[in-house]
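Dissemination and training. As part of the outreach component of the grant, students in the summer workshop were shown how a complex can be specified as a set of sequence lines and then modelled as a single object. The example used during the hands-on session is reproduced here so that future cohorts can follow it. Participants entered these lines:
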Amino acid sequence: GQQLNQSPQSMFIQEGEDVSMNCTSSSIFNTWLWYKQDPGEGPVLLIALYKAGELTSNGRLTAQFGITRKDSFLNISASIPSDVGIYFCAGQRTNAGKSTFGDGTTLTVKP
Amino acid sequence: GAVVSQHPSWVICKSGTSVKIECRSLDFQATTMFWYRQFPKQSLMLMATSNEGSKATYEQGVEKDKFLINHASLTLSTLTVTSAHPEDSSFYICSALAGSDNEQFFGPGTRLTVL
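and obtained this result:
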């Protein structure tokens, strides 16, 4: 079954607001990944984290790999309408590429 | 970045028929591909790991005789849903590993509807 708890499940925010979502696990992961999925499409990688404590940015997105290796968060600053979509965290235990996905956070941005 | 394609993008079939979905890595070779299934408003659930030149590794609870996987070349993996039933209706997504970091690139998905 699913081993990653992602929250919140959904968010409704105003354009320009900042967003924060997180993922927690009962077990350790060696890699944390954050993806965005638009309706009817496959996920697209936003940020990859490989080291405990690592803080990485990609434009308005910032993600951190928790020190315990059991959690990660994603922040989006100054949201815009095109940020709408479903955001998934994923964890990997090995470098073989096999990922476990969180349940997703559905983001709605009101103009 | 690396591009992964899937064909068809959507398919509607009658109950009892078999459907084949193709996953291709367009500009790179992939010894490992993954097949996921995603039901509406749910997460991606890994079905199996497809290894070029060898048998696929299936996740617990996934019937290997129902979901046949063939990875006959370094750029193509196929998933055949045999004797499809309405409960098999779902969004099937493949991914392929590329690069020294084994980054996972996803295909655009295939929407299967079984009537």
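The first strand of chain A starts at residue 4 and ends at 7. Students were then asked to discuss how this feature might be tested experimentally.
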